[in-house]
Design a protein that fits this description.
single chain, alpha/beta, three-stranded mixed sheet, 12 helices, 9 strands, 48% helix
Length: 296
């Protein structure tokens, strides 16, 4: 028996599965649902109850955590869960949804008397598995005593950005952070592609910048995945990165700002996905530099 909240995790992909496991390790009673149930089944070995429907997962839950592909998927899934949602249930919306759908998500929460937290997470597979994500959160102070232990179980740090989840301040900050991550990923791929085109050894480039202001651990990490052919399992898939890049471009346009690098990154990721790399790590945007598979 535990006095900790019961948590329902809707969406058990790369991030959601890791978050569910960390919640179970922290002593929470956890239910999990995924559109493709087979992907959620391994969680049963961690004492997590895998359910057939979203409604079954959220019935009696104190906290519902959504970690789905996008905002539309979150709305659709919560709609399926609606008959079993109790007034006063905390909803921590952890999907990267951009800013256009935040009002719709918050409106859904209001209609069903849920306590809504805009709470996207920053991190990929490894920090998710280690419980070292950064949670960006916005939502009412009343109710935080319930949701904070949940955030503490999945993350190393929670950054509060506001008291009204409907304003989307956490999601806005997440887009800013992701714009940097995705641009750096695209740049890493282009450096490798240019090295190949010019017959230059990429290791000579890494040695050239070693220890200086141009050196970057993230560049080396993503480049190594490509050079060593270790793009699966993905830490963050090309398809998801492409979706996030499009959200960044849309948000910028809405704010009257032109982001040429973000737009190009979105196009590169979309092209890499079309080439068959959708489920590989986003470092596979490298392949978008080639009309055919590169030699070597």
């Amino acid at each position: 028996m535990t006095d900790k909240p019961t948590v329902s995790v809707l969406g058990t992909g790369i991030m959601g599965a890791a978050m569910a496991r960390n919640l179970a390790r922290a002593g929470f009673e956890v239910r999990a649902w995924n559109r493709t149930r087979e992907k959620a089944e391994p969680l049963a070995a961690n004492g997590i109850r895998v359910t057939e429907t979203p409604a079954e997962a959220v019935e009696g839950a104190d906290v519902v955590l959504t970690m789905l592909f996008d905002g539309n998927a979150a709305l659709e899934t919560m709609g399926e869960a609606a008959p079993a949602l109790r007034p006063g249930t905390v909803w921590a919306q952890c999907t990267t949804v951009g800013i256009e759908l935040i009002a719709d998500l918050a409106a859904f929460a209001g209609e069903h008397e849920l306590v809504f937290y805009d709470a996207p997470v920053l991190g990929t597979r490894q920090p998710a598995e280690a419980g070292q994500l950064t949670v960006l959160a916005a939502g009412p102070e009343q109710g935080r005593e319930t949701v904070t232990p949940v955030f503490d179980a999945v993350g190393a740090r929670t950054v509060w950005t506001g008291t009204d989840g409907a304003e989307g301040s956490a999601s806005r900050l997440k887009l800013v952070a992701n714009s940097w991550v995705l641009t750096a990923t695209a740049a890493a791929g282009e450096v490798l592609a240019l090295s190949q085109a010019l017959g230059a050894d990429p290791q000579d480039f890494f040695e050239l910048i070693r220890g200086g202001p141009l050196d970057m651990g993230y560049l080396r990490a993503k480049a190594t995945l490509v050079l060593d052919g270790k793009l699966t399992p993905a830490s963050f898939a090309v398809s998801t990165a492409a979706k996030d890049a499009r959200l960044i471009v849309q948000a910028a346009e809405r704010g009257g700002v032109r982001l040429d690098l973000a737009a190009a990154t979105a196009e590169r990721l979309t092209r890499a996905a079309a080439q068959g790399h959708a489920d590989e790590d986003m470092a596979a945007a490298y392949f978008a530099s080639f009309d055919e598979k590169p030699a070597g």
